Amino acid sequence: MERPSLNIYKFSLGRIQQSEPRTGYNFVVSLMPSVALINKEDELKKVNIGLIGMEVMGTNLALNMESKGYSVTVFNRTALKTETFAKGRAKGKDILPTYTIEDFVSALESPKKIMLMVKAGKPVDAFIEKLVPLLNEGDLIIDGGNSYYKDTMRRNIDLAEKGILYIGTGVSGGEEGALKGPALMPGGQLEAYALIEELFRHIAAKAADGLPCVSYIGPHGALNRGIIQAHRCKSSGRPSLCLLYRASWCRSFRKDGS
User: Fold this and answer.
1) Cα torsion at 83, 106, 171, 165 (round to 10°)?
2) Fold annotation for 45-255
3) What are phi and psi of 163, to 5 degrees?
4) Domain assignments of the chain as residue spans, ordered by start
5) Which of 17, 26, 112, 254 lies 20 to 30 angstroms, CA to CA, from 236?
6) What pTM does this model have?
7) 184 and 200 in contact (C-beta within 8 Å)?
8) Beta-strand pair 9-12/15-18
């Protein structure tokens, strides 16, 4: 019995290209590289945490999080920095670059957890203003910059009225600490800290006894008052003292049982 003749088609940019007829029951539809199919499972998969700010501290923290098993989506005000990071150090990693704030937020699992690694002051307020309309009650914003504690308190109160959680977090250890393990000092609502505690403990520096250098400092702007000396030390160009401060924080965290 003669087998039916089936045609092979290639799809590219809306054009259908017919190949020579072949004989056989099986056929293959070939998709050119310009056509992408969306797997439904991938479409539904959401990212664990989002990070805004692609300077060295932000990129290093994103790499740290990814190395500990967390999926990360990243965004920067200037798309070029996001693209450079995605094609460079983040290539092949579970890090999703996004180029609009809407795509960034929609990529996140709920409750959404977003960490800001941008310059303290107006840039933080500007991003919060953009994020708020896209967030739901119970979502979390984390400010990882060295914000003035009164600004942190103001933002915490303002966002709480909208049902959005907010934590100010000191990140100590510089560029190397961000990548390999910083000392972390989060301050905000206790329920907000509960959302991020596990991730923070995984990415934080570890003391000699293996315990992570992270502790809940308290409500509102408590952490910012506690890290002023560290930033003064860092800016003084005496990194050995920074490490000393970092080690002393680890010891104090363990001493108080936090």
Assistant:
1) 160
2) Rossmann fold (3.40.50)
3) 85, 10
4) 1-37, 45-255
5) 254
6) 0.72
7) yes
8) antiparallel
